[in-house]
Amino acid sequence: MTFQDFIKKGNVRQSTSDPALVQSLLLTAENDLLFLEPLEINQTSTRKIMSNYYDILRSIIEAIAAKEGYKVYSHEAFTDYLKEKNETILSEKFDRYRKIRNNINYYGKNISVEEVKEYKEDIKLMIQQVQQKFFSKKDHTTNKP
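RE: above sequence
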């Protein structure tokens, strides 16, 4: 499927750029990262921490789409959205983490402490790269001094 297919099916709606939503998504993502960072990753916390890091990544990608005037109602559509933007590696990694998150949330799969530690660092790097590439300082405010 392509991103245009998601638009035709109604899983993505085209409108105008929404700077307020972009700012809100970026600020929420930043606050969520600050909240998650000190949490201990242990066998009890792995599922929630992994799911939350994925959600932050998805929010950042949603902010890109909102900046360009898209409202996306399907996590799968983000994969094709990124492909359309020639972000193949990011698209593949995002889709991989989407599947891991779905397995955790919908199928009761477990995930190891080691995997979460590795994925957390990879997702944080992806977030940093996406923010640098797609957003300027004026796109969001920050809690950092």
